[in-house]
Design brief:
- The structure is a single chain.
- The protein is mainly α and about 300 residues long.
- It has one domain.
- Helix content is about 60%, strand content about 5%.
- The chain has a two-stranded parallel ribbon. Strands 3-4 form a two-stranded antiparallel sheet.
- A hairpin with a 5-residue loop joins β3 and β4.
- The longest helix has 25 residues.
């Protein structure tokens, strides 16, 4: 049973998405920034708060579908706005870093929610045959048909064509197949330009300045991902309080150097926008992705109002 928690997006393996999930999903800058920059409401990625509303509505629709199939279902917790931040290449919010460090406590909260998810206990109590039917009803059965999407970087991904999750997304976005195709392309463009962006001299200069800034503060790191890789070792054996202090000090230094002392965040955002802008062959699908996002947002608001 997979739908236990919809966590914040995982940081991109390639080192560009300097902001969080919404940036990777749409433009090269955050949903909030696009909302302010664009005159056309639907020509932007959703903000984190808007996407959270859509995710919550999806879970309500999944619940309706599961109940109709004879099961009980508790809507899975979705990542809140705070949990959706801090997952990019470099921290870009000093206040968030001061409060959450690198988000360790937020991730611990996710684990606790998963551990106490009532769906787990419910599924475990079902007879074997019903447990299988529950899983297939919720997530789908690949043997009954799948949708396939080609990724921009090569390869394909598949998803079951019919399930309560598919039905919920179909109701939100209007056409599940169209959404699946657009979403898989629009959210996987970063791999097409990440190597070139990181090799760009403008990025390398900004990153070098950031590293020097960190070194002046007593933290000798060549790039932000190195900090995340070493953090478990740096806090190993420390008390909870001391570990949080070490984490927050590093996070605040990283964000301060990236946003206030150097141009790393600004340069990365500008370059990401520039490189994504060269992918004109994907312009229509990105526009369609954003249109479907806003359709889902409109429906989500209606669903929440109906549930009142």
């Amino acid at each position: 049973m997979k739908r236990t928690f919809v966590s914040a997006c995982v940081a991109t393996a390639v080192a560009v998405a300097v902001v969080g999930c919404t940036a990777a999903a749409g433009s090269g800058i955050s949903g909030t920034d696009r909302a302010q920059a664009d005159g056309t409401e639907t020509e932007r990625a959703l903000t984190d708060a808007e996407q959270m509303l859509v995710d919550q509505a999806r879970e309500l629709l999944v619940q309706e579908c599961m109940v109709a199939e004879g099961f009980r279902y508790w809507p899975a917790a979705v990542a809140d706005v705070e949990e959706r931040q801090g997952s990019g290449y470099v921290l870009d919010d000093v206040d968030w870093a001061q409060e959450h460090g690198y988000g360790t406590a937020l991730r611990d909260r996710v684990v606790a929610i998963r551990r106490n998810d009532p769906n787990h206990a419910y599924v475990e109590a079902l007879p074997d045959a019903e447990r299988v039917r529950y899983s297939r009803t919720l997530d789908g059965d690949p043997s009954a048909g799948v949708l396939t999407a080609e990724l921009p970087v090569g390869g394909t991904v598949q998803t079951p064509r019919d399930s309560c999750l598919a039905q919920a997304k179909g109701e939100l976005y209007g056409d599940f197949a169209a959404w699946f195709q657009a979403e898989k392309v629009a959210t996987n463009l970063v791999g097409l330009y990440a190597p070139d962006l990181m090799a760009d001299e403008r990025f390398r200069v900004a990153l070098g300045a950031w590293s020097e800034c960190m070194r002046e503060r007593g933290h000798d790191y060549p790039d932000p991902p190195t900090i995340r890789g070493e953090l478990p070792l740096l806090t190993d054996g420390l008390s909870g309080k001391k570990a949080r202090e070490v984490e927050r000090a590093l996070a605040v230094a990283e964000a301060t150097c990236a946003t206030r002392e150097t141009s790393l965040v600004r340069t990365a955002r500008d370059l990401e926008s520039e490189y994504r802008g060269r992918l004109q062959q994907y312009r229509d699908v990105v526009t369609e992705h954003q249109r479907l996002q806003h359709r889902a947002l409109e429906h989500a608001r209606e669903i929440h109002a109906r549930r009142g």
